[in-house]
Amino acid sequence: MKHYAALVLVPALLLGACQQQTSNENAATNANTTDVDAVAWVNDQPISRDMFEFHLMRRTQGQPELAGPEAREALLNELVDLTLLAQEAENLGLGEEPEVRAQLDNLRQAVLAQAAVERLAQNPDEALIKEQYEQQYAEPQQEYHARHILVDDAETAQQLISELDEGADFAELAQEHSTGPTGPNGGDLGWFMPEHMVPPFAQAVQQLEPGQYTAEPVQTQFGFHVIKLEDTREQPKPEFDRVRDQLAMEVSQNAIENRLQELRDEADIRLADAEEASAAEQAPADETDTQGAESAAN
């Protein structure tokens, strides 16, 4: 039976194929292709061992014990089929079609950009990680314990606030009226950090004193809230080792963003639409000046 798996697996293999495209094209034009470290040749075009091992690693998710003879043979057959289909596309001239060329260019740029990101994110400076730790946890982290009543409209929320003003019990109102999942529990949200809540909710909570509830309904994408702050406390500073990995990711992300900004600052970036718009704005003025000069001459 013929191997039609490549027809299904082409998208999964494209990334690796793009990574190997340049090396394979160069190898294919080399008269002595047997010098290439390849696992197979298809019409004298090598399938590089690097490409094969790349796909094998992805398929086995980095677990070499899963890369048995059957798995390796199946992958090799798929890569052979992929190469044959790519050669057929070249023979049909499809590689010169604008849409195909655009996709190939996009894939190559995406792979190179990802490689640059990975290089910039490698081995973040330990001193910067510790500096990030000291900055991020310089001030005690405040935690909040609150309850809320969630309803669908502002009028209902305002009516509940009026009932609270008259002495109603917050937890009982939450059990009776709240549409949120904490309603049966009296609206109790437990302890949380402000950044774990949507901004309008977090801002409202931070403005309350323990025992207070919001004087006006607080609107979020979930509906209208009446919020009561039960208590606050300072969260202990976490041990460095417990948060190091997260801080390292933040340092790496900062390095990527800073380098990208440097590249933008150093680059000559011209926007075609902006240039065309500028030229269009300039054209009437030039035309007026020309007409004025002709009138003066006459």
Question: Which features does this protein show?
Answer:
alpha+beta; disordered N terminus; 10 helices; four-stranded antiparallel sheet; 298 residues; elongated; two-stranded antiparallel sheet; Chitinase A, domain 3
Describe the SSE topology:
Blueprint: H1 5-29, E1 38-42, E2 45-48, H2 49-59, H3 69-91, H4 98-121, H5 126-136, E3 141-151, H6 154-165, H7 170-177, E4 188-192, H8 199-206, E5 218-220, E6 223-235, H9 240-266, H10 272-297
How big a fraction of the residues is strand? 5-15%
Number of domains: 3
Low-confidence stretches: 1-11, 15-32
Count of runs of 4 or more consecutive helical residues = 10
Q: What structural category arises from helix and sheet content?
A: alpha+beta
Q: What sort of overall outline do the alpha carbons produce when their principal axes are compared?
A: elongated
Number of strands: 6
* Percent helix range: 55-70%
H/E element order:
HEEHHHHEHHEHEEHH
Q: Span from first to last CA?
A: 87 Å
Which sequence of strands runs across the widest sheet?
4-3-6-5
Describe the structure.
The chain is α+β, with helices and mostly antiparallel strands and 298 residues long. The chain folds into three domains: 5-121, no CATH class; 123-138 and 238-259, no CATH class; 141-235, Chitinase A, domain 3 (Roll). It is built from ten helices and six strands; from the N terminus they run αββααααβααβαββαα. The protein has helices spanning 5-29, 49-59, 69-91, 98-121, 126-136, 154-165, 170-177, 199-206, 240-266, 272-297; strands at residues 38-42, 45-48, 141-151, 188-192, 218-220, 223-235. The chain has a four-stranded antiparallel sheet with strand order 4-3-6-5, with helices on both faces. The radius of gyration is 32 Å and the shape is elongated. It starts with a helix and ends with a helix.
